[in-house]
Every structure is written in structure tokens, then in C-alpha cells.
UniProtKB/TrEMBL annotation:
It comes from Blochmanniella pennsylvanica (strain BPEN). This is cysteine desulfurase. Signal peptide: none annotated. It comes from the Bacteria. Its EC number is 2.8.1.7.
Amino acid sequence: PIYFDYAATTPVDPRVVEKMIPYFTLDGIFGNPSSRSHYYGWKAEEAVDIARKQIAQLIGAESREIIFTSGATESVNLAIKGIAQSYHKKGKHIVTSMTEHKSVLDTCQYLENKGFEITRITPQPNGLITFEQISNALRDDTILLSIMHVNNEIGVIQDIKKFGKLCRLHDIIFHVDATQSVGKLHIDLSDLPVDLMSFNGHKLYGPKGIGGLYIRQHRHPKLHITAQMHGGGHEHGMRSGTLPVHQIVGMAEAYRLARETMTTEMIYLKKMRDRLWQGLQQIEGILINGDLEYSIGTLLNISFNNIDGETLIIALKDFALSSGSACTSGTLNPSHVLQALGRNNELAYNSIRFSLGRFTTEEEIEYAIHHIAATVMKLNAMIYLL
Ligand code: PLP
């Protein structure tokens, strides 16, 4: 099947795989970077230092501001729980949105059960959150705002710079889930009022099981985050556990490649996405979810009147697509994101997400337009006959 599910995960770029291979075996660099007494440890530590710098470079951060984790879910947990546990005496109020990834929503739910108060903003029908909505939600006892940069289901881009400025003004910590935007949109943390940022390797042609948390160092007062993983005191005591050097090197190579290719790749993918929508919009009863103008150029989320999303996905078995988000598509719940935008249950069910990536070709887009239009027509005709 043709792969249109890059927002769920990406294939690892062969150049990344090649870079990782020497980091497994005795004749390569397999050592523990915490082994400070011998060559094997030093070489591994050196590789981690270089990788950390490459990752920091893509997002305009300093090396020491990056903590390695097992992925964005862990980064989000460390950021939100870590802040809640460090600042609960200052306040117990956290602001987020209804359209966040489950890792944010469930972490906030966990904290709510522990006595924190959570305000969940409902975005506008196009998925965007306004400055006024954030401003109205903040209170004297708010300690944290957590908003995603790019939504994983509909692709809308939030104005994190504006939200961050507001947080600075009120001395509120700002966490951004940038899992879907790192390496796709220009992010320069030296010029962005963001305190914490979560990201991973596998959405950007790197390996799974590796991610990072950016923690701003130049901040007054200094940030304190309570560790969630205890042990050998790795990563300045913030995240214990032996560093997976091969994964880190892989993610760094993926980020280095993104820095080189991001601009041209995004122009190309936006062109492909726009062509896809142009071709599909002729289909009767098709609706777009989100807002193409304010969305990342790799994603298209559509709903159909009358046709069940799951039925459509089965009928479109030549394509690897997602209905709602991958994390919830195993269940029968309609997408929480589309529901939050005011789509009724039927339209939220009847949605499919195309997400394009580095290996998407023009031929695949043309084939998809042709094939999907024909399939929908056939399904519509069957419904008509019933
Ligand atoms: N946040 C967003 C917006 C995502 O799309 C994902 C991936 O599904 C995550 C967080 C979780 O990332 P990971 O798979 O690295 O835990």
C-alpha cells in the first residue's frame, strides 16, 4: 500500500540507518557514555556530545538545554508532571487545550485526579486557539500553559510566539509539544519565549524509542523540574537511565538532514498536499477539517457526509491512511480533536487523514486522487441503492 501516514511515524531515512550501524558492535562505538574510565566510554560520550549539539542546532537551542528521553510521550510527562510537582506550592492550575495529543491530555487528567485544576481550551472551529482565549484562561495561580505547536490530526499551527509572550508577562511556564513541527517548521528557541519543548526521532525519519525535552537554561527565576525516572543521575539527574547512543546518533543525523532539506522539502510537500486537495475537493459531500491556510503543508484531514470512515479505509486498502489519530484508531471513539472543533459524531467518525512525507511522489498523489474519487463514487452508489 502507498504510505500516507507520515504523521503516525516515518520510515527511517537510509542515511540515518547507515550512521547508526557502527554504534552496536565491539569494533564500533558501543560503550556506555557514563563509563568515564576508558576509551569505550569516552568515544560513546563524544558521540552523544556531537549528537546533542546537532539536535540543539535544528531548534536554536544550546546543547545543555536538551535532555534525552524515550520519546515525546515521556518528554511531555516529564515536562508537565515535573513542573506540577515542583511548583504546586505556587499554584495548582494548568491550562491546556482540548485538541492536544493524548500524552498531554492524559497527563493533565492524572494531575487533576491528584488535586490540580485543569482548564482545557476549546479551539475555534478551524482548530486555532486565539490570544484572547489563552489570556482569559490564565489566573493568578496558573503555573503552566501546555499547547501543541502543530496538531497531529488536522495540522493547524498555533501561534506559540504570542502565547509565550503572554506567559512571560505573567511568569507562567510555557511547554510546547512540538512533535509534529520539529524539522518541518522553522523553530528558533533563542528567539521564542518557550520554556519547555517536547519532540522525538520517529516523526522525522529517525528511530523510534528516542526523544528529547528542551529545558530553557537562561530563565529567571531558574526552572525546576522534578525528575520522573530515578537511578544513576544521568542527564543532570533529570532522567536516569543509560543513554541509547545508537538511537541518539540516529536522531541527530535525522535532525541534521532536516536542517539541510527542510525548506525545499516543505515547499514540495505543500504543493503535493494542495494538489491532493484540489483533486479530491470535487467529490460530493467532502469537507476539510482544520484550516489549510494555517496548517502544516504535509497534512490533509477530510470528512465525508454519508460514508463511514472505517468503511472507506477498508475500501481504500491500497493506501495506508489513518482515521482520526493512529493512537485512537484501534478504538471506536470518534476523534476527540474533530469533536472539539464542533464536528458532529458522524463527521468525526467519517474522517480520514492523509499525511505526506519525504518519500511521497507525484505519481502517488495522482493515483490517490483517481482511486479515491472512484471508490467514493462507488460507495455512494451502493448507499443510494440501499
Ligand atoms: N505529541 C504529538 C503531537 C504526537 O503526534 C505524538 C505521536 O504520536 C506524540 C506526542 C507522542 O510521541 P512518541 O511516539 O514519541 O511518544
